[in-house]
Amino acid sequence: MRILVLHGPNLNLLGRREPEIYGRTTLAEIEEELRRLGRELGVEIESRQSNHEGDLVDWVQEAEGEFAGILLNPAAYTHTSVALRDAIAGVGVPVVEVHLSNPAAREEFRHVSYVAPVVIGTVAGFGKESYLLGLRALVGYLKAH
Fold first, then answer.
1. For the chain, which terminal residue's Cβ has fewer other Cβ atoms within 10 angstroms, N or C?
2. CA nearest 66: which of 92, 42, 37?
């Protein structure tokens, strides 16, 4: 079983960007922990990051038939991207949305997720653990369906 992990804009700056909000863990460290957990769960992890909305949309569309599920941190596109929302809705690939911080506890403009209505679930507010919890939830969902 293959899982695609997609990281949205500015996540390449993890570890040094607003560490009081996002922590000091780097994206490379999160990806290594996901690969380790993936091995434990018996799944293969492929991770990609882009600051460009179109890349994320393309990768979601290309996932159909290639990946069993997607673990997605849309980052700022959570609150702005109808295109990403429509891509998720348009493919038959289960998606779990993850966030390091808790958007509902932050600025008002972060309270609305355009992707939440078309994903199977959201994990937010647990720092890097959001990714690991999200992966466990996605794999559990896939094994049950």
1. C
2. 92
CA atoms within 13 A on the CB side of 62: 10
SS3 content of the chain, % helix, strand, coil (to 5): 50, 20, 30
Flag whether 50 is in a domain: yes
Structure tokens at 124: 């937010």
Return the active site residues.
Answer: 22, 99
The Cα 145–Cα 126 span in angstroms is: 26
pLDDT in tens, 1-16: 999 999 999 999 998 8
Tell me the whole-structure pTM to 2 decimals.
0.94
Does residue 90 lie in a domain region? yes
CA dihedral 32, 33, 34, 38 (to 10 degrees): 100
